[in-house]
Amino acid sequence: MLFNSLEFFIFLPIVFILYWFVFFKKTRVQNLFLLVSSYIFYGLWDWRFLFLILASTVVDFFVGQTIYNNTSNSKRKTWLWVSVIFNIGLLGFFKYYNFFIDSWIDLLSIVGYETTSTWTLQIILPVGISFYTFQTMSYSLDIYYKRLQPTKDFISFATFVSFFPQLVAGPIERASNLLSQITTKRVFTYNQCKEGLKLILWGLFKKIVIADAIAPIVDDIFLNYNEYSASTLILGVSLFSFQVYGDFSGYSDIAIGTAKLFGIELMSNFKFPIFARNVAEYWQRWHVSLSTWFRHYVYIPLGGSRVSKLKSVRNIIIIFLVSGFWHGANWTFIAWGALHAVLYIPVFLMGRNRMYMGNVVAENRWFPSLTEILQILLTFSLVTFSRVFFRSTSITDAFGFLEQMYSNFTYETYHHPLGYRMVDYFVLLGIFLLYEFRIRKDERAPFKFKSKIVRFILYALVILGMLLFYDDQIDRSFIYFQF
Amino acid sequence: MKKLILKSVLYIFLILLVLEVLVRVFHLSKDTPTRFLDKHEVEKWFPNQNGFSVTGNRRQNFSEYHINSSGYNSYREFTPSKDKIEIALVGDSFIEGFHQDFYNSIGKKIENAIPSLEVYEYGYAGYDFADQLHLIDSYKKQFDLINHIILGLKFSNDLTRGEYKVVTSRLNLESPLNRLLKKSKLLVYCKSIGILDPPQEFVYKFINLLQPKPKAKTIDKKEIERIKLEEEKRFLANFESLIARYGFEKERYTLLLDSRITSPIFMSYLKKHNFRYIDYASSFESTNRSTTLIYDRHWNNHGRNLIAKNIINYLKSNNLTP
Asked: Do B15 and A420 touch (CB under 8 A)?
């Protein structure tokens, strides 16, 4: 069930009403209802994969308790490994099995041993597997690091793992935030619900108006890159930056907004990365829940930045390679991760990786300074350049794309593949950027204006935008569902 | 909770109201003329209406229509006489041409090329061959004065019936409920861009769930070919039945068709029985520009230019021009 589908807009009010009016008396019953709703939500995609979620839930529920009850460090470690191997094993099989087999065969052919693949399997990637496995693992890891006490309530834990607003594409929550809210009684508050509805509206706008409207252009340019000149290719990859941002941050807003309707606060996932002033700030603002996960469970255990510079650089490289690989079983993602490591390391070595933490561009000012504009443009260009690898279907295509850009370095007028006016999209993106800049201080309040009239006009304009750019021919699924 | 529900309802209502105003201000939605059944049981537009036809979600195509006193979209009135040379174009929405400004129609393009000729466009969305012949028969006196009649024919659509009957499903669009719904420009706009398709499909799916499903039959290629052939023969029989009922003056009537989508059986039948036709397939095939609109399969300006050119060439080569 997609957030931008009719089914969801029937499902959500029903669950909301039953949640607050029928099952509100006991938290445990309310949680059981949320669990059943979440399983229905997921099962409508493919009910067979519910068993994977259930398996991951059962394993980590018992592993968590066993780790907590054991005093012996070696046993605790062994049980932690059970969780890690089980979850990584699920990921490895469903997401990476064919990749490893194909890569192994390619390696053999490089050393002169030609063979045909008979080991690859027709495996469907279960939606959201990368997200919920990481979430369950974080539970066992937190207990192992003694940051968390395990819950004895299986229903609550299963609800934490499968909570439908964030089940398929995050934000990847830590038990200390989400599970603690699930185990305590929720109280309906008008303001929380109102904020939730606003976030859902803004998320839908980003998905329908920004991401979906741009998608046919990006698809066309990346599919036929060898027919276009550099100007079109630059346009394509730049628009992809907006597409992926609109798509994923739109999803996250809807997820956070939906959770608010049930009295639950999820962590922020996007904090206006478009206005990042260097690559380090970009990573503090882009897919925050994943970055946080890697920082807590990989980077810090490796020593983080408290070790020698050389080891820190090694840790950064590991983090970005793993992060790239997490996105998909393709060398393009590994190359994308490596490229980000290359971009991040100089910022780290210059000691500028934490300088923009806790402040936004043009803090306490109406407009950014010239330096800030140049910094934003440079960061956007670098990040956008890396997206050539992220978007291409293979490494060969990515290099082909770059080679075409270099060899055909000319300007041409691009025409929309469906014949629409291109100027509409440029005007749209211009307005979107200005608006995002206006609201840049609070990613959870997209309509924070004192005047009720201004807010009302904005709601109407946002919905009008959706009506103007809605296209029933477009594949409306979310990009990050494939991860 | 009460506050949330009340405020949500209020906001939804006010936002819908504002959207209705915005859709009207920016003229995003099409106007819908009124249709009726005349005394001859010919379905047509109510005379003397004006409005704008809009296609696509950001006015990708915006055109003006004018329904003349005969009930058809045309910049001119139809006043055939023996003193002038007139051509009639009879057909469906492609001839009706709501997707173009009424003063830039196929007929106008032909008249621009041959100024002393008058072109009457009897186009109406959904007209099939039975509708066309029934119209000509019903207004025989008027059509007898017209020098040449060109009938648009799409083989797969226009020969599905062998006798004329009033199409009630189209007239049902004029039901009080439909007229009322059409008053909301927002609703008309939402329907035109496909936003209402998912709820409709959902309702159909739900209804289908309650009904027993027929067992799906597997049909092999031979069976498909046999069914196709049978259908083509049926269409041909319908053609014969209609011309037997209404008559077909081979010297004065010409069919306008695309041989790429016309059955070879029908094509050879036309040739064998000396039916005149204009085949625009080659001109559409040879152009490297799109001949249809973005959001719609109707001809765009380029497509209409090609059609006009085909008709002009045909008229000239057959000495049908003044």
From this structure: no
| A334, two tokens | 């590994």
**Beta B61-67 vs B117-123: how paired, if at all?**
unpaired
> Which of A458, A460, A451 shows the shortest CA–CA distance to B22?
A460
Contact B320, B150 (CB under 8 A): no
pLDDT of residue A99: 76
Q: What is the pLDDT of residue A392?
A: 93
Distance CA A189, CA A413 (A): 52
State the virtual CA torsion across A116, A122, A128, A131 in degrees, nearest 10.
-30
Task: Give tens-digit pLDDT for A459-474.
Answer: 999 999 999 998 877 7
A327 classed as catalytic: yes
Give bridge partners of residue B63 from the DSSP assignment. B53
**What are B299-310's pLDDT values in tens digits?**
999 999 999 999
Q: Closest chain A residue to B295 measured between Cα atoms? A: A418
Q: What residues in chain A have their Cβ under 8 A from chain B's Cβ atoms?
A: 5-7, 10, 20, 188, 190, 193-194, 197, 418-421, 424, 456, 459-460, 463-464, 467-473
Interface test with A, best of B22, B24, B206 (most A CBs within 10 A): B22
DSSP A226: G
- Spell out the SS3 assignment of chain B: CHHHHHHHHHHHHHHHHHHHHHHHHCCCCCCCCCEEECCCCCEEECCCEEEEEEECCCCCEEEEEEECCCCCECCCCCCCCCCCEEEEEEECHHHHCCCCCHHHCHHHHHHHHCCCEEEEEEECCCCCHHHHHHHHHHCHHHHHCCCEEEEECCHHHHCCCCCCCCCHHHHHHHCHHHHHHHCCHHHHHHHHCCCCHHHHHHHHHHHHHHCCCCCCCCCCHHHHHHHHHHHHHHHHHHHHHHHHHHCCCCCCEEEEECHHHCCHHHHHHHHHCCCCEEECHHHHHHCCCCCECCCCCCECHHHHHHHHHHHHHHHHHCCCCC
Write down the catalytic residue from A296, A327, A340, A416: A327
Summarize pLDDT for A97-107 with one digit per residue, the tens: 777 777 778 77
Lookup result for tokens 């990481």: A134
**Average of per-residue pLDDT across B33-50:** 93
Cβ partners under 8 Å of residue A346, min gap 6: none
| CA neighbor of A225 nearest in space, from A337, A424, A391 | A391
Element (H, E) at A154: helix A154-162
DSSP annotation of A273 reads: G
| B60 neighbourhood in chain A, CB within 8 Å | 419-421
Q: Check CB contact of B79 with chain A, cutoff 8 Å.
A: no
The tokens 């009719």 sit on which residue?
A6
Cα distance from B26 to chain A (closest Cα, Å)?
11
Contacts of A63 (CB under 8 A, 6+ apart): A79, A80, A82, A83, A140
Least confident span in A218-232, B140-154, B163-177: B163-177
This model of the complex carries an ipTM of 0.80
Would you say B164 and B128 are in contact if contact means Cβ atoms under 8 Å apart?
no
Residue bearing tokens 């062994």: A78
CB-based contact A264:A159 (threshold 8 Å) = no
What type of residue sits at position A477? Answer: S
- Separation of alpha carbons A382 and B223, rounded Å: 59
Residue keyed to tokens 């409207």: A213
pLDDT in tens, A25-36: 889 999 999 999
